[in-house]
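Obj: model holo form, ligand = KG4.
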Amino acid sequence: MGIIILGIESSCDDTSAAIIMNRKILANITANQEVHKNYGGVVPELASRAHQQNIIPVVDQAIHTAKIQKNDVNAIAFTAGPGLLGSLLVGASFSKAFSLALNIPLLDVNHMHAHILAHFIENNNTKSPEFPFLCLTVSGGHTQIVLVKDPCNFEIIGKTIDDAAGEAFDKAAKIMGLPYPGGPQINMYAKNGDRQKFSFPHPNIPDLDFSFSGLKTSILYFLRDKLKDDPSYIEKNKNDLCASIQHTIVEILMNKLRKAAQKTGINQIAIAGGVSANSELRRALYNEQEKQGWQVFIPPFEYCTDNAAMIAITGYYKYLKKDFATQDISPFTRYK
Ligand code: KG4
Ligand code: ZN
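Output (holo structure tokens):
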């Protein structure tokens, strides 16, 4: 038998547990929290209560699906941050207790690094990037261009100075009255829309940094003016609005990614995080693969949005380095 790691993810509104043996996933179980749908965003207190209810059944199901016994687990890895404190505490306390009870090592995982290392989960259909490579990490809370030197060495060479790309999708969707999370909704309506129909301004930010708050404001003012003349303007133009907003966000991301590739001379380009599920971003990357000779790495859908498989693979690499955590470790809310 290889090294078996139990991974736990609870940074936001998904409670997830995965079992990995070396780099192969044996189980990846996620309980989504429907409770937030009524509020147009994640309510932190409700999220932590739901994690408490879900965590034991989710772990139990993961162990059962993987056809192992809990005593087979060599170490437990958990998301230490960034994320919502109350949510992180549930995963952290469960993992500490599990580690103590079974007398196995505890591994603390950075959620953003885990999104990137999802590329190293063993998969018959896709190859993993070689080091060094660039990763555009785009989620609900972060937008970064990361120079990945090895599984434990990450240098952020560009980041957002305000909203994240996922937040830009979610806020635009909210303005249009679409349910949370807005990214998949915008992606869905955009499929039948004209992406050139409306043009929104691109930010003028130096180097490899991003900004998305101006886009949100320009969508807000544009629609406010249009709705004055025609209250059903959004409904009538929903597909074209979604396609144009999505196109703008993808263009902003791609422009910086091209610049990063030029600056570093690296042409192995990966994407990670929830927004990497976006079909236009995926298409834009494949275009660039043809035009610029990039080698592009896109994770399977199941490992794009939050999941514990990515926590387990990151835990595996930390386990190999014997980079263990102690019982006094505290979760952290902001990227470090
Ligand atoms: O990585 P993730 O699951 O959670 C965080 O760590 O934040 O990312 C969630 C974000 C949300 O903002 C969601 O709207 C966005 O990913 N997202 C998408 C798509 N699927 C998820 N954005 C655009 N297109 C999608 N298909
Ligand atoms: Zn995430």
